[in-house]
Predict the 3D structure of the following.
Amino acid sequence: MKIRSDILRVYQALHTWTGICAGILLFIGFFGGALTMFKQPLERWASAPSAPLAALAPQQMDRVVAQVLAQHPAARQEFTLHVQRNEANPAPVTWSAGEGGRELQLDAMRWQATLGADGALQAQELRPSLFGEMVDMLHRTGGIPGHLGDEYLGVYVMGVAGVLYFLALVSGVVLLLPTLVKDFFALRQGRNRKRFWLDAHNVIGIASLPFHIVISLTVIVFAFHDQFYDGLQQMVYGERKMWVRPAGAPGPGDVSQLMPASALLQRVQQEAPGFAVTELLYMDVEGKRPLVRAGVAHDAYAVRGAQSGYVLLDPYSGQVLNTSMLPTKSDTWSSIVAPFFSLHFGSYGGDWMRWVYFVFGLAGAFLFYSGNLLWVEKRRKNQLRGQDALPPQPRRTLLLAAATVGVCLGSVAGVAGALLAAKWLHAGAANLNATLMAAYYSVFLACVAWAFWRGAARAGAELLALCALLGLAIPLTSLLALGFPALGMWAHGSLGAVAVDLAALVLALLLAWGARLAHRRARSGPGDSVWSAAAASGAAARAAVAPAPPVAAGAPGVAPAPTGAAAAGDGQA
Protein backbone atom coordinates (compact mmCIF):
# COMPACT_ATOMS: atom_id res chain seq x y z
CA MET A 1 0.00 0.00 0.00
CA LYS A 2 1.38 3.40 -1.03
CA ILE A 3 0.84 6.52 1.10
CA ARG A 4 2.32 9.92 0.30
CA SER A 5 5.33 10.83 2.44
CA ASP A 6 3.86 14.18 3.54
CA ILE A 7 0.75 12.40 4.87
CA LEU A 8 2.93 9.88 6.71
CA ARG A 9 4.87 12.73 8.34
CA VAL A 10 1.65 14.26 9.65
CA TYR A 11 0.50 10.94 11.10
CA GLN A 12 3.96 10.29 12.53
CA ALA A 13 3.87 13.61 14.38
CA LEU A 14 0.32 12.87 15.60
CA HIS A 15 1.28 9.38 16.76
CA THR A 16 4.44 10.60 18.48
CA TRP A 17 2.98 13.47 20.45
CA THR A 18 -0.28 11.83 21.44
CA GLY A 19 1.67 8.80 22.61
CA ILE A 20 4.21 10.89 24.52
CA CYS A 21 1.53 12.96 26.24
CA ALA A 22 -0.56 9.99 27.33
CA GLY A 23 1.94 7.13 27.50
CA ILE A 24 3.21 7.44 31.06
CA LEU A 25 -0.29 7.71 32.55
CA LEU A 26 -1.54 4.87 30.40
CA PHE A 27 1.32 2.66 31.59
CA ILE A 28 -0.04 2.94 35.15
CA GLY A 29 -3.59 2.39 33.89
CA PHE A 30 -2.70 -0.77 31.97
CA PHE A 31 -0.46 -2.22 34.68
CA GLY A 32 -3.15 -1.60 37.30
CA GLY A 33 -5.84 -2.90 34.95
CA ALA A 34 -3.93 -6.15 34.44
CA LEU A 35 -3.80 -6.66 38.21
CA THR A 36 -7.52 -5.92 38.65
CA MET A 37 -8.25 -9.10 36.70
CA PHE A 38 -7.37 -10.87 39.96
CA LYS A 39 -8.50 -8.44 42.65
CA GLN A 40 -9.96 -11.16 44.84
CA PRO A 41 -6.83 -13.38 44.95
CA LEU A 42 -4.69 -10.29 45.63
CA GLU A 43 -6.91 -9.22 48.51
CA ARG A 44 -6.91 -12.78 49.81
CA TRP A 45 -3.08 -12.84 49.75
CA ALA A 46 -2.97 -9.51 51.59
CA SER A 47 -5.66 -10.32 54.17
CA ALA A 48 -5.16 -12.15 57.45
CA PRO A 49 -7.02 -15.47 57.65
CA SER A 50 -10.47 -15.44 59.20
CA ALA A 51 -12.64 -18.27 60.46
CA PRO A 52 -14.93 -19.50 57.65
CA LEU A 53 -18.62 -19.01 58.26
CA ALA A 54 -20.94 -21.89 57.50
CA ALA A 55 -23.15 -21.76 54.42
CA LEU A 56 -26.87 -21.23 54.98
CA ALA A 57 -29.86 -23.06 53.63
CA PRO A 58 -32.54 -20.96 51.82
CA GLN A 59 -34.78 -20.83 54.90
CA GLN A 60 -31.82 -19.72 57.02
CA MET A 61 -31.20 -16.91 54.53
CA ASP A 62 -34.69 -15.62 55.24
CA ARG A 63 -34.00 -15.60 58.98
CA VAL A 64 -30.57 -13.95 58.76
CA VAL A 65 -31.96 -11.13 56.58
CA ALA A 66 -34.86 -10.53 58.95
CA GLN A 67 -32.60 -10.47 62.02
CA VAL A 68 -30.00 -8.18 60.40
CA LEU A 69 -32.69 -5.64 59.50
CA ALA A 70 -34.24 -5.84 62.96
CA GLN A 71 -31.02 -5.59 64.99
CA HIS A 72 -28.88 -3.35 62.73
CA PRO A 73 -30.90 -0.44 61.30
CA ALA A 74 -27.78 0.86 59.43
CA ALA A 75 -28.05 -2.14 57.10
CA ARG A 76 -31.44 -0.93 55.83
CA GLN A 77 -29.70 1.59 53.60
CA GLU A 78 -27.78 -1.12 51.76
CA PHE A 79 -26.66 -4.69 52.45
CA THR A 80 -25.66 -7.73 50.41
CA LEU A 81 -26.82 -11.30 50.75
CA HIS A 82 -24.05 -13.47 49.26
CA VAL A 83 -25.64 -16.49 47.62
CA GLN A 84 -22.38 -17.81 46.18
CA ARG A 85 -19.69 -18.10 48.83
CA ASN A 86 -15.96 -17.88 48.12
CA GLU A 87 -12.81 -16.59 49.78
CA ALA A 88 -13.71 -13.02 48.84
CA ASN A 89 -17.20 -13.35 50.37
CA PRO A 90 -16.81 -15.54 53.46
CA ALA A 91 -19.95 -14.28 55.24
CA PRO A 92 -23.60 -14.71 54.17
CA VAL A 93 -24.49 -11.04 54.78
CA THR A 94 -22.26 -7.95 54.67
CA TRP A 95 -22.87 -4.22 54.89
CA SER A 96 -20.75 -1.10 55.33
CA ALA A 97 -20.66 1.10 58.39
CA GLY A 98 -20.20 4.49 56.78
CA GLU A 99 -20.83 6.49 53.65
CA GLY A 100 -20.70 4.87 50.25
CA GLY A 101 -19.73 6.39 46.94
CA ARG A 102 -16.89 6.07 44.46
CA GLU A 103 -14.14 7.33 46.74
CA LEU A 104 -11.76 4.83 48.33
CA GLN A 105 -12.44 5.04 52.08
CA LEU A 106 -9.32 3.86 53.85
CA ASP A 107 -10.95 3.89 57.29
CA ALA A 108 -14.18 2.16 56.18
CA MET A 109 -15.54 -0.57 58.44
CA ARG A 110 -17.68 -3.49 57.36
CA TRP A 111 -20.09 -5.71 59.24
CA GLN A 112 -20.59 -9.37 58.46
CA ALA A 113 -23.23 -11.65 59.89
CA THR A 114 -24.39 -15.24 59.94
CA LEU A 115 -26.55 -17.51 62.11
CA GLY A 116 -25.13 -19.50 64.99
CA ALA A 117 -25.91 -23.10 65.79
CA ASP A 118 -28.80 -21.92 67.98
CA GLY A 119 -30.28 -19.80 65.19
CA ALA A 120 -29.25 -16.49 66.79
CA LEU A 121 -27.59 -13.76 64.75
CA GLN A 122 -23.81 -13.54 65.01
CA ALA A 123 -22.43 -10.24 63.72
CA GLN A 124 -18.96 -8.73 63.87
CA GLU A 125 -17.34 -5.52 62.68
CA LEU A 126 -14.03 -5.58 60.84
CA ARG A 127 -11.88 -3.46 58.55
CA PRO A 128 -11.64 -5.19 55.16
CA SER A 129 -8.51 -5.18 53.05
CA LEU A 130 -8.82 -2.63 50.25
CA PHE A 131 -5.65 -3.59 48.37
CA GLY A 132 -7.62 -4.65 45.29
CA GLU A 133 -9.68 -1.45 45.43
CA MET A 134 -6.47 0.60 45.76
CA VAL A 135 -5.04 -1.01 42.62
CA ASP A 136 -8.34 -0.37 40.84
CA MET A 137 -8.20 3.28 41.92
CA LEU A 138 -4.67 3.56 40.47
CA HIS A 139 -5.96 1.93 37.29
CA ARG A 140 -8.80 4.47 36.97
CA THR A 141 -6.89 7.60 38.02
CA GLY A 142 -3.25 6.95 37.14
CA GLY A 143 -2.51 7.65 40.80
CA ILE A 144 -3.38 11.36 40.44
CA PRO A 145 -4.76 12.61 43.78
CA GLY A 146 -7.54 15.14 44.32
CA HIS A 147 -11.22 15.43 43.50
CA LEU A 148 -13.31 17.34 41.02
CA GLY A 149 -16.90 17.31 42.26
CA ASP A 150 -17.90 13.79 43.24
CA GLU A 151 -15.23 12.13 41.13
CA TYR A 152 -11.47 11.73 41.27
CA LEU A 153 -9.58 14.35 39.24
CA GLY A 154 -7.44 11.56 37.82
CA VAL A 155 -10.48 9.90 36.23
CA TYR A 156 -11.04 12.94 34.00
CA VAL A 157 -7.32 13.18 33.23
CA MET A 158 -7.35 9.52 32.19
CA GLY A 159 -10.39 10.26 30.02
CA VAL A 160 -8.39 12.90 28.15
CA ALA A 161 -5.50 10.40 27.93
CA GLY A 162 -7.99 7.95 26.43
CA VAL A 163 -8.79 10.42 23.64
CA LEU A 164 -5.08 10.87 22.89
CA TYR A 165 -4.65 7.11 23.12
CA PHE A 166 -7.28 6.52 20.43
CA LEU A 167 -5.62 9.09 18.15
CA ALA A 168 -2.27 7.38 18.69
CA LEU A 169 -3.80 4.02 17.74
CA VAL A 170 -5.33 5.32 14.50
CA SER A 171 -2.19 7.20 13.45
CA GLY A 172 0.00 4.20 14.33
CA VAL A 173 -2.04 1.94 12.05
CA VAL A 174 -1.74 4.45 9.19
CA LEU A 175 2.03 4.60 9.68
CA LEU A 176 2.38 0.82 9.56
CA LEU A 177 0.10 0.23 6.55
CA PRO A 178 2.79 0.68 3.86
CA THR A 179 4.99 -2.07 5.38
CA LEU A 180 2.35 -4.11 7.22
CA VAL A 181 2.69 -7.29 5.15
CA LYS A 182 6.49 -7.25 5.06
CA ASP A 183 7.17 -6.22 8.67
CA PHE A 184 4.30 -7.85 10.54
CA PHE A 185 5.65 -10.27 13.15
CA ALA A 186 9.21 -9.37 12.19
CA LEU A 187 11.61 -9.16 15.13
CA ARG A 188 14.96 -8.19 13.67
CA GLN A 189 17.84 -8.55 16.08
CA GLY A 190 21.33 -7.27 15.54
CA ARG A 191 23.44 -4.24 16.26
CA ASN A 192 20.53 -1.87 15.62
CA ARG A 193 18.65 -2.22 18.92
CA LYS A 194 16.22 0.52 17.94
CA ARG A 195 14.97 -1.68 15.09
CA PHE A 196 14.30 -4.54 17.52
CA TRP A 197 12.32 -2.27 19.89
CA LEU A 198 10.39 -0.81 16.96
CA ASP A 199 9.50 -4.28 15.67
CA ALA A 200 8.38 -5.40 19.15
CA HIS A 201 6.33 -2.20 19.55
CA ASN A 202 4.63 -2.74 16.17
CA VAL A 203 3.91 -6.45 16.69
CA ILE A 204 2.29 -5.92 20.08
CA GLY A 205 0.36 -2.88 18.86
CA ILE A 206 -1.11 -4.54 15.76
CA ALA A 207 -1.71 -7.96 17.34
CA SER A 208 -3.71 -6.41 20.19
CA LEU A 209 -5.30 -3.59 18.18
CA PRO A 210 -8.96 -4.63 18.71
CA PHE A 211 -8.33 -4.89 22.45
CA HIS A 212 -6.76 -1.43 22.53
CA ILE A 213 -9.54 0.17 20.50
CA VAL A 214 -12.16 -1.18 22.90
CA ILE A 215 -10.16 -0.08 25.96
CA SER A 216 -9.56 3.42 24.59
CA LEU A 217 -13.23 4.00 23.79
CA THR A 218 -14.52 2.59 27.07
CA VAL A 219 -11.98 4.63 29.07
CA ILE A 220 -13.51 7.76 27.56
CA VAL A 221 -17.05 6.57 28.38
CA PHE A 222 -16.18 5.60 31.95
CA ALA A 223 -14.38 8.91 32.58
CA PHE A 224 -17.26 11.06 31.35
CA HIS A 225 -20.18 8.71 32.00
CA ASP A 226 -22.02 11.20 34.24
CA GLN A 227 -22.01 13.78 31.46
CA PHE A 228 -23.04 11.19 28.84
CA TYR A 229 -25.85 9.79 31.02
CA ASP A 230 -27.15 13.26 31.86
CA GLY A 231 -27.35 13.98 28.15
CA LEU A 232 -29.12 10.69 27.45
CA GLN A 233 -31.56 11.38 30.28
CA GLN A 234 -32.63 14.61 28.62
CA MET A 235 -32.53 13.45 24.99
CA VAL A 236 -33.61 9.81 25.17
CA TYR A 237 -35.49 9.09 28.38
CA GLY A 238 -36.93 12.48 29.30
CA GLU A 239 -39.04 12.19 32.44
CA ARG A 240 -39.69 8.47 31.97
CA LYS A 241 -38.51 6.41 34.95
CA MET A 242 -36.43 3.28 34.58
CA TRP A 243 -38.98 1.32 36.62
CA VAL A 244 -42.26 2.02 38.39
CA ARG A 245 -43.43 0.20 41.51
CA PRO A 246 -46.71 -1.64 40.97
CA ALA A 247 -49.84 -0.01 42.36
CA GLY A 248 -50.94 -1.41 45.70
CA ALA A 249 -47.59 -3.10 46.39
CA PRO A 250 -46.85 -3.57 50.10
CA GLY A 251 -44.47 -1.13 51.77
CA PRO A 252 -42.15 0.53 51.43
CA GLY A 253 -41.06 1.39 54.93
CA ASP A 254 -42.15 -1.70 56.83
CA VAL A 255 -39.22 -4.10 56.46
CA SER A 256 -41.24 -6.89 58.08
CA GLN A 257 -43.24 -7.08 54.82
CA LEU A 258 -40.20 -7.80 52.63
CA MET A 259 -40.59 -10.86 50.46
CA PRO A 260 -38.43 -13.73 51.80
CA ALA A 261 -35.00 -13.90 50.21
CA SER A 262 -35.58 -17.53 49.17
CA ALA A 263 -38.66 -16.45 47.19
CA LEU A 264 -36.69 -13.66 45.48
CA LEU A 265 -34.04 -16.22 44.52
CA GLN A 266 -36.70 -18.38 42.89
CA ARG A 267 -38.02 -15.38 40.93
CA VAL A 268 -34.51 -14.61 39.64
CA GLN A 269 -33.84 -18.24 38.69
CA GLN A 270 -37.12 -18.34 36.77
CA GLU A 271 -36.22 -15.12 34.97
CA ALA A 272 -32.64 -16.20 34.21
CA PRO A 273 -32.58 -19.98 33.71
CA GLY A 274 -29.08 -21.38 33.37
CA PHE A 275 -27.50 -18.43 35.19
CA ALA A 276 -25.99 -18.74 38.67
CA VAL A 277 -27.33 -16.22 41.18
CA THR A 278 -24.28 -14.75 42.95
CA GLU A 279 -25.80 -12.17 45.31
CA LEU A 280 -28.82 -10.08 46.24
CA LEU A 281 -28.00 -6.42 46.87
CA TYR A 282 -30.78 -4.73 48.88
CA MET A 283 -30.92 -0.94 48.47
CA ASP A 284 -32.97 1.68 50.32
CA VAL A 285 -35.55 -0.78 51.63
CA GLU A 286 -37.16 1.96 53.77
CA GLY A 287 -37.06 4.61 51.07
CA LYS A 288 -39.40 5.61 48.28
CA ARG A 289 -37.73 3.41 45.66
CA PRO A 290 -36.63 0.16 47.35
CA LEU A 291 -34.74 -2.18 45.08
CA VAL A 292 -33.00 -5.54 44.97
CA ARG A 293 -30.27 -5.97 42.37
CA ALA A 294 -29.65 -9.66 41.78
CA GLY A 295 -26.27 -10.60 40.31
CA VAL A 296 -26.36 -13.44 37.76
CA ALA A 297 -23.28 -15.02 36.18
CA HIS A 298 -22.67 -17.17 33.13
CA ASP A 299 -19.29 -17.62 31.42
CA ALA A 300 -20.88 -17.96 27.98
CA TYR A 301 -22.39 -14.45 27.97
CA ALA A 302 -21.02 -10.91 27.87
CA VAL A 303 -22.44 -9.27 30.98
CA ARG A 304 -22.81 -5.65 32.08
CA GLY A 305 -20.95 -5.77 35.38
CA ALA A 306 -17.36 -6.62 36.20
CA GLN A 307 -18.36 -10.24 36.88
CA SER A 308 -22.11 -10.60 36.43
CA GLY A 309 -25.27 -9.34 34.80
CA TYR A 310 -28.21 -8.02 36.79
CA VAL A 311 -31.92 -8.44 37.34
CA LEU A 312 -33.79 -5.69 39.23
CA LEU A 313 -36.67 -6.65 41.52
CA ASP A 314 -39.06 -5.03 43.96
CA PRO A 315 -38.09 -6.40 47.41
CA TYR A 316 -41.69 -6.22 48.71
CA SER A 317 -43.72 -7.67 45.85
CA GLY A 318 -40.97 -9.66 44.14
CA GLN A 319 -41.97 -8.20 40.77
CA VAL A 320 -39.20 -8.13 38.16
CA LEU A 321 -38.68 -4.46 37.35
CA ASN A 322 -35.93 -4.51 34.75
CA THR A 323 -34.04 -7.13 32.74
CA SER A 324 -32.14 -4.84 30.38
CA MET A 325 -28.85 -5.89 32.06
CA LEU A 326 -29.65 -9.62 31.69
CA PRO A 327 -27.91 -10.82 28.48
CA THR A 328 -30.75 -13.07 27.29
CA LYS A 329 -33.46 -10.41 27.74
CA SER A 330 -31.70 -7.10 27.17
CA ASP A 331 -33.16 -4.38 24.97
CA THR A 332 -31.46 -2.94 21.88
CA TRP A 333 -29.63 -0.17 23.73
CA SER A 334 -28.34 -2.50 26.44
CA SER A 335 -27.27 -5.05 23.81
CA ILE A 336 -25.06 -2.35 22.31
CA VAL A 337 -23.69 -1.03 25.59
CA ALA A 338 -23.15 -4.29 27.53
CA PRO A 339 -20.38 -5.66 25.25
CA PHE A 340 -18.31 -2.52 25.86
CA PHE A 341 -18.51 -3.07 29.62
CA SER A 342 -17.80 -6.77 29.25
CA LEU A 343 -14.90 -6.26 26.86
CA HIS A 344 -13.35 -3.69 29.20
CA PHE A 345 -13.76 -5.77 32.36
CA GLY A 346 -12.97 -9.14 30.77
CA SER A 347 -16.14 -10.52 32.37
CA TYR A 348 -16.69 -13.38 29.95
CA GLY A 349 -15.02 -16.68 29.19
CA GLY A 350 -14.09 -17.51 32.77
CA ASP A 351 -10.66 -17.52 34.39
CA TRP A 352 -8.73 -18.30 31.23
CA MET A 353 -10.00 -15.04 29.67
CA ARG A 354 -8.87 -13.14 32.77
CA TRP A 355 -5.38 -14.49 32.17
CA VAL A 356 -5.60 -13.34 28.54
CA TYR A 357 -6.55 -9.85 29.73
CA PHE A 358 -3.76 -9.95 32.29
CA VAL A 359 -1.21 -10.63 29.52
CA PHE A 360 -2.79 -8.00 27.24
CA GLY A 361 -2.65 -5.47 30.07
CA LEU A 362 1.05 -6.06 30.69
CA ALA A 363 1.72 -6.01 26.94
CA GLY A 364 -0.11 -2.68 26.73
CA ALA A 365 2.08 -1.27 29.50
CA PHE A 366 5.14 -2.39 27.51
CA LEU A 367 3.68 -0.68 24.43
CA PHE A 368 3.70 2.73 26.13
CA TYR A 369 7.09 2.21 27.77
CA SER A 370 8.70 1.19 24.48
CA GLY A 371 6.96 4.07 22.67
CA ASN A 372 8.71 6.61 24.87
CA LEU A 373 12.01 4.76 24.47
CA LEU A 374 11.64 4.90 20.68
CA TRP A 375 10.94 8.64 20.77
CA VAL A 376 14.12 9.24 22.74
CA GLU A 377 16.16 7.16 20.28
CA LYS A 378 14.55 8.96 17.36
CA ARG A 379 15.76 12.28 18.79
CA ARG A 380 19.30 10.88 18.91
CA LYS A 381 19.11 9.78 15.28
CA ASN A 382 17.90 13.21 14.19
CA GLN A 383 20.74 14.92 16.05
CA LEU A 384 23.38 12.75 14.39
CA ARG A 385 22.51 14.04 10.93
CA GLY A 386 25.35 16.19 9.61
CA GLN A 387 27.43 15.75 12.78
CA ASP A 388 30.93 14.32 12.89
CA ALA A 389 30.96 14.24 16.71
CA LEU A 390 28.47 12.83 19.16
CA PRO A 391 26.10 15.66 20.22
CA PRO A 392 24.84 15.86 23.81
CA GLN A 393 21.18 15.11 24.39
CA PRO A 394 18.96 18.14 25.02
CA ARG A 395 17.63 18.64 28.52
CA ARG A 396 14.00 17.94 27.58
CA THR A 397 14.99 14.49 26.27
CA LEU A 398 16.88 13.68 29.46
CA LEU A 399 13.91 14.74 31.57
CA LEU A 400 11.41 12.71 29.54
CA ALA A 401 13.60 9.62 29.75
CA ALA A 402 13.97 10.02 33.52
CA ALA A 403 10.21 10.57 33.93
CA THR A 404 9.45 7.47 31.87
CA VAL A 405 11.73 5.29 33.96
CA GLY A 406 10.77 6.81 37.31
CA VAL A 407 6.99 6.90 36.89
CA CYS A 408 6.54 3.57 35.08
CA LEU A 409 8.92 1.49 37.17
CA GLY A 410 7.97 3.45 40.29
CA SER A 411 4.35 2.37 39.91
CA VAL A 412 5.40 -1.27 39.58
CA ALA A 413 7.66 -1.03 42.64
CA GLY A 414 4.98 0.86 44.59
CA VAL A 415 2.33 -1.81 44.05
CA ALA A 416 4.75 -4.59 45.01
CA GLY A 417 5.86 -2.62 48.08
CA ALA A 418 2.25 -2.06 49.19
CA LEU A 419 1.46 -5.76 48.77
CA LEU A 420 4.47 -6.70 50.91
CA ALA A 421 3.52 -4.09 53.53
CA ALA A 422 0.16 -5.85 53.93
CA LYS A 423 1.95 -8.74 55.65
CA TRP A 424 5.11 -7.22 57.07
CA LEU A 425 3.39 -4.24 58.69
CA HIS A 426 0.12 -5.96 59.58
CA ALA A 427 0.83 -6.31 63.30
CA GLY A 428 1.96 -2.72 63.89
CA ALA A 429 -0.50 -0.80 61.68
CA ALA A 430 -3.53 0.81 63.32
CA ASN A 431 -5.15 1.21 59.89
CA LEU A 432 -3.57 -1.19 57.43
CA ASN A 433 -5.32 0.30 54.39
CA ALA A 434 -3.85 3.74 55.10
CA THR A 435 -0.46 2.07 55.56
CA LEU A 436 -0.76 0.38 52.17
CA MET A 437 -1.56 3.68 50.48
CA ALA A 438 1.36 5.39 52.24
CA ALA A 439 3.67 2.52 51.23
CA TYR A 440 2.69 2.84 47.56
CA TYR A 441 3.22 6.59 47.30
CA SER A 442 6.43 6.49 49.38
CA VAL A 443 8.03 3.91 47.10
CA PHE A 444 6.63 5.56 43.96
CA LEU A 445 7.88 9.05 44.79
CA ALA A 446 11.26 7.70 45.91
CA CYS A 447 11.67 5.93 42.54
CA VAL A 448 10.76 9.09 40.62
CA ALA A 449 13.24 11.15 42.63
CA TRP A 450 15.92 8.48 42.13
CA ALA A 451 15.39 8.46 38.35
CA PHE A 452 15.83 12.23 38.06
CA TRP A 453 18.87 12.20 40.36
CA ARG A 454 20.67 9.24 38.75
CA GLY A 455 19.55 9.79 35.19
CA ALA A 456 17.60 7.42 32.96
CA ALA A 457 20.51 5.13 32.04
CA ARG A 458 21.64 4.26 35.56
CA ALA A 459 18.18 4.45 37.14
CA GLY A 460 16.65 2.21 34.46
CA ALA A 461 18.81 -0.77 35.41
CA GLU A 462 18.65 0.00 39.14
CA LEU A 463 14.87 0.40 39.31
CA LEU A 464 14.29 -2.71 37.21
CA ALA A 465 16.49 -4.60 39.69
CA LEU A 466 14.48 -3.10 42.58
CA CYS A 467 11.19 -4.21 40.98
CA ALA A 468 12.63 -7.70 40.47
CA LEU A 469 13.71 -7.91 44.13
CA LEU A 470 10.31 -6.73 45.38
CA GLY A 471 8.56 -9.22 43.11
CA LEU A 472 10.79 -12.03 44.35
CA ALA A 473 10.08 -10.98 47.95
CA ILE A 474 6.36 -11.78 47.48
CA PRO A 475 6.72 -15.60 47.21
CA LEU A 476 9.63 -15.53 49.68
CA THR A 477 7.33 -13.84 52.21
CA SER A 478 4.84 -16.68 51.84
CA LEU A 479 7.62 -19.23 52.34
CA LEU A 480 8.80 -17.39 55.45
CA ALA A 481 5.26 -17.33 56.80
CA LEU A 482 5.04 -21.10 56.33
CA GLY A 483 8.44 -21.83 57.83
CA PHE A 484 8.39 -19.33 60.70
CA PRO A 485 4.86 -18.87 62.11
CA ALA A 486 6.32 -16.83 65.00
CA LEU A 487 6.78 -13.92 62.58
CA GLY A 488 3.03 -13.32 62.82
CA MET A 489 2.43 -13.55 59.08
CA TRP A 490 0.28 -16.01 57.14
CA ALA A 491 0.30 -17.99 53.92
CA HIS A 492 -3.01 -19.00 52.40
CA GLY A 493 -3.15 -22.34 50.68
CA SER A 494 -5.93 -21.40 48.25
CA LEU A 495 -5.28 -21.68 44.53
CA GLY A 496 -5.73 -17.93 44.03
CA ALA A 497 -3.18 -16.97 46.69
CA VAL A 498 -0.65 -19.49 45.37
CA ALA A 499 -1.18 -18.09 41.85
CA VAL A 500 -0.25 -14.63 43.16
CA ASP A 501 3.08 -16.03 44.40
CA LEU A 502 3.78 -17.86 41.14
CA ALA A 503 2.86 -14.86 38.95
CA ALA A 504 5.06 -12.59 41.08
CA LEU A 505 7.96 -15.02 40.67
CA VAL A 506 7.60 -15.11 36.87
CA LEU A 507 7.38 -11.32 36.64
CA ALA A 508 10.39 -10.97 38.95
CA LEU A 509 12.47 -13.17 36.61
CA LEU A 510 11.38 -11.12 33.58
CA LEU A 511 12.25 -7.87 35.38
CA ALA A 512 15.64 -9.27 36.40
CA TRP A 513 16.31 -10.13 32.75
CA GLY A 514 15.29 -6.58 31.79
CA ALA A 515 17.61 -5.16 34.46
CA ARG A 516 20.51 -7.16 33.01
CA LEU A 517 19.79 -5.86 29.50
CA ALA A 518 19.45 -2.28 30.75
CA HIS A 519 22.74 -2.53 32.65
CA ARG A 520 24.51 -3.86 29.56
CA ARG A 521 23.00 -1.09 27.46
CA ALA A 522 24.10 1.56 29.96
CA ARG A 523 27.63 0.13 30.03
CA SER A 524 28.27 -0.46 26.34
CA GLY A 525 25.58 1.45 24.40
CA PRO A 526 26.22 4.37 22.02
CA GLY A 527 27.89 7.22 23.88
CA ASP A 528 25.33 9.81 22.78
CA SER A 529 22.29 7.77 23.89
CA VAL A 530 20.20 8.75 26.91
CA TRP A 531 20.29 5.07 27.89
CA SER A 532 24.10 5.03 28.05
CA ALA A 533 25.88 5.82 31.33
CA ALA A 534 28.81 7.13 29.28
CA ALA A 535 26.63 9.98 27.99
CA ALA A 536 26.40 11.54 31.44
CA SER A 537 30.16 11.30 31.90
CA GLY A 538 30.69 12.85 28.49
CA ALA A 539 28.33 15.71 29.31
CA ALA A 540 30.26 16.39 32.52
CA ALA A 541 33.52 16.39 30.64
CA ARG A 542 32.21 18.84 28.06
CA ALA A 543 30.94 21.10 30.83
CA ALA A 544 34.42 21.07 32.35
CA VAL A 545 36.07 21.94 29.02
CA ALA A 546 33.62 24.63 27.91
CA PRO A 547 34.48 27.41 30.42
CA ALA A 548 38.28 27.03 30.00
CA PRO A 549 39.91 30.36 29.04
CA PRO A 550 41.51 30.64 25.59
CA VAL A 551 45.24 29.97 25.44
CA ALA A 552 47.86 30.58 22.84
CA ALA A 553 48.43 27.83 20.36
CA GLY A 554 51.27 25.59 21.36
CA ALA A 555 51.23 26.49 25.07
CA PRO A 556 52.88 23.71 27.03
CA GLY A 557 50.63 21.10 28.59
CA VAL A 558 47.47 22.34 26.87
CA ALA A 559 45.75 20.47 24.05
CA PRO A 560 44.57 22.60 21.14
CA ALA A 561 40.90 23.53 21.20
CA PRO A 562 38.61 21.42 18.98
CA THR A 563 37.81 22.94 15.64
CA GLY A 564 35.41 22.46 12.81
CA ALA A 565 32.64 19.88 13.14
CA ALA A 566 33.96 18.60 16.44
CA ALA A 567 33.64 22.01 18.02
CA ALA A 568 30.17 22.43 16.60
CA GLY A 569 29.19 19.04 18.01
CA ASP A 570 30.44 19.94 21.46
CA GLY A 571 28.50 23.15 21.44
CA GLN A 572 25.14 21.58 20.59
CA ALA A 573 22.33 22.31 23.10
Q: What stands out?
A: The longest helix spans residues 351-384. The CA atoms of residues 412 and 467 lie 7 Å apart.
